Amino acid sequence: MIDLLLSGPEALTPYLVVSAALFACGVLACATRRNAVGYLMGIELMLNAAALDFVAYGRFRTPLEAGQGQVFALFVVVLAAAEAAVALALVYSVYRTFHDIDLEKTTTLGARR
Amino acid sequence: MSLSIFAFWPLVALVVAGALCTALARNLIYAAMSLGVTLSGVAGLYFFLQAEFLAVAQLGVYVGGILVLILFGVMFSRDILGKTLRPARGTWFLGGLSAALTFFVSARVALAVAARRGDNALELRRSAPESWPGNFAPDSPAHLGDLLSGPYLVPFLVVAMLLTVILVGALVLVRKEGE
User: Fold this and answer.
1) CB contacts, 8 Å: B111 with chain A
2) Is the pTM of this model over 0.90?
């Protein structure tokens, strides 16, 4: 444990544990938020945890010439941006239909007449 | 041991605290701001992993782009006007349980992986210039560009197509009906 604390950024384990904590926080946000935007924040946290894992493993485990970890994380960042744009568009159209973005109320495809 | 641990552990604490606030804050604006702290902290961790380009991309795309989008989204919410949507009691219990399980299982796996390979205190790899693939250092932005225009060209083009589709799709989704 002391070794781990002293080695700090030079060891793989701290990155993996931080990534696990980020992912758990994302799960918690997705499970408890009733607001669609809060839910989206949880998804962003989980995506970031996955990207951090990719970069850490790419740094410590694969030959650096491959560069796979960083390329994969770059794709994760791009897809997260795309996902956020679509999710916000969906939130906007849900808000226009239901005048609310409470996920417990949006249980039908359209507003009740 | 190097002096960098005095920057590393506070950064880790900042990232985890920001993530917890994102999940737990009552006010959605606070949650969005904590998310910004977490995303910037992860960019700092990328610097520690010597992934400078990725760190800058993280700051530009996540903190500059996605966070602003999310703040726009927060405006649709009633949570900033003092009326908060409180989840049911059972949701807190189940959500907390699943989050705790997720954390303990993945942290346990991380520790087991490090112990099994026996290189927990692995030095960051620093290869000699003779073994570099081109005229640039491994994991430098030039190397990333070389990879994206070489072995990863097809995924790169697919992502470019996807971004175009997303742009048009998002516009169609927010279009007023009947136009």
Assistant:
1) 13, 17
2) no
